[in-house]
Design goal:
By secondary structure, the protein is an all-alpha fold. The protein contains 25 helices and no strands. The protein is flat, with a radius of gyration of 31 Å.
């Protein structure tokens, strides 16, 4: 039979005392800061949940909490009443029976499952599913506490996270309180650190959601920042096993992020891309390649490899008008940002890339809007003054210019043209006129000047008529 030595007992007692002291300091800080702001039943119950889990007792908490919860009892859901009853034994509440019973409507309704993952699936079905499997009334009564969030599986937590970052789905729902956001972010952070069920694709998805502007979770920047750092640390661990495609998908997410930029991971990914071949890049989607081209950390060697892959005949013809225009703007931006004449020469002397891009732009011009045509013309103006660039085809310039006139004339024949569209056409014509005056690439013809003047007069008259009709 084993016996416990006195030294072991002393060590255990010391660790227990230290743990209790740490818990006391931690929870006292929580109580002093924001956990006493129990403006809703869920917030009050979250306070009790934290204290109950740590077995920490605060003097007179039962009296203070009971008074607040009794006042909020009429607005409690059945789940919140059940949770309160669960904590009443530990907190020694003497009056929890005074809480009003559930209404007949609640009693007759089918009870919600106690499985938090099932509740998340029910909510997610309403958010994403074409045919919801539960009714609106049942979904509206679903609520979550900090305890139930901690019981979620990884998939359930990610589903709840997607609903949390949504700006349109149930914005005032009870499960979107700040305490639940904090608990969920911390839970995801611990899940990412463990890394058992989180791959690079999941990490990229989480980081993209964290980078989205206007997200409801932005109210907790510190927790979001810690989750982002955990994702970066996990990426650094699995980087040797990541494919080139995965590296290209991750790089834009960490290159221009709202959080602290992870330079070490960026450098390692760039080194990996420099060492890869064009054959490896040929299996990557075009949209992923274009996103990677916009990253500042991409070296000129990798930049030109990606450009050559995009310029392959089988791929360049599949570019949409938006992608071909984006490819042009990326090339022009890189050309302008190149610090040395050698870099400019490398970009400009690759005539094959420019030729196939000009040809694809010529094909896509027939589908471009006025703004897109003007943007393409301004890029061509920059190329005209750049050294070692393949001559800009005059046929492309002429077609873009005629496309601007055609779209505006076609819009003027329609009755339902908004004032915003008319103002946009006026600004576009003004920019086109300035281009024709200052750039030798666009010969200034009297015919073009007359067309611009005529269209500007018609647009100004239409704008005046619309303002009179509105008044």
């Amino acid at each position: 039979m084993f016996t416990v030595s006195s030294s072991m007992r002393c060590g255990t007692a010391y660790r227990t005392a230290a743990d209790r002291c740490q818990v006391s300091r931690y929870h006292q800080q929580l109580v002093d800061s924001r956990y006493w702001n129990c403006s809703t039943p869920s917030q009050a119950l979250s306070t009790l949940s934290v204290l109950a889990r740590s077995r920490t007792v605060v003097d007179a908490l039962d009296v203070a909490a009971l008074g607040a919860l009794e006042a909020m009892a009429p607005s409690m859901t059945q789940g919140e009443r059940t949770l309160l009853q669960k904590f009443s034994t530990f907190l020694k509440f003497k009056n929890t029976t005074c809480l009003p019973p559930a209404s007949p409507h609640e009693s007759n309704a089918s009870p919600l499952t106690e499985d938090p993952n099932a509740n998340v699936v029910a909510l997610y079905t309403k958010l994403m599913g074409e045919k919801p499997s539960v009714g609106v009334e049942e979904i509206g009564s679903i609520s979550f506490s900090s305890d139930s969030i901690l019981q979620l599986s990884t998939v359930g937590a990610l589903m709840l996270f997607e609903m949390m970052v949504s700006t349109t789905f149930q914005p005032c729902a009870s499960w979107r309180i700040e305490d639940n956001i904090v608990t969920l972010l911390n839970y995801l952070r611990n899940t990412v650190i463990r890394g058992d069920t989180v791959d690079s694709r999941t990490l990229g998805w989480i980081m993209s959601k964290l980078n989205s502007a206007g997200s409801p979770i932005a109210c907790r920047p510190s927790e979001c920042g810690r989750l982002f750092k955990a994702c970066v640390k996990r990426l650094n661990d699995i980087l040797p096993q990541m494919s080139v495609n995965e590296c290209l998908q991750i790089l834009p997410l960490i290159d221009t992020t709202a959080y602290e930029r992870p330079f070490i991971v960026c450098v390692e990914i760039v080194k990996r891309l420099d060492a890869c071949s064009e054959i490896e890049l040929s299996d990557v989607r075009t949209s992923t390649l274009l996103s990677a081209l916009r990253c500042e950390d991409v070296t000129l060697k990798t930049f030109m490899k990606i450009c050559r892959v995009i310029s392959k005949e089988f791929r360049i013809v599949e570019l949409s008008k938006g992608e071909s225009l984006l490819f042009l703007t990326i090339l022009v931006a890189r050309l302008n940002s190149s610090a040395s004449a050698e870099d400019v020469g490398i970009i400009g002397s690759n005539g094959k890339v420019w030729e196939v891009l000009f040809a694809q732009l010529y094909v896509d011009t027939g589908d471009m809007s006025v703004v897109e045509c003007i943007e393409a013309l301004m890029c061509l103006e920059v190329l005209y003054f750049s050294p070692l660039i393949t001559a800009v085809p005059g046929g492309l310039v002429e077609k873009l210019k005629k496309r601007v006139f055609f779209v505006i004339r076609k819009a003027m024949k329609q009755r339902h043209v908004t004032a915003q569209e008319v103002e946009l056409f006026l600004k576009s014509l003004q920019r086109l006129g300035e281009l024709l005056k200052r750039c030798l690439l666009f010969p200034l013809l009297e015919k073009d000047t007359a067309i611009i003047t005529e269209l500007q007069a018609e647009l100004a008259l239409r704008l005046v008529q619309q303002s009179v009709n509105t008044a």
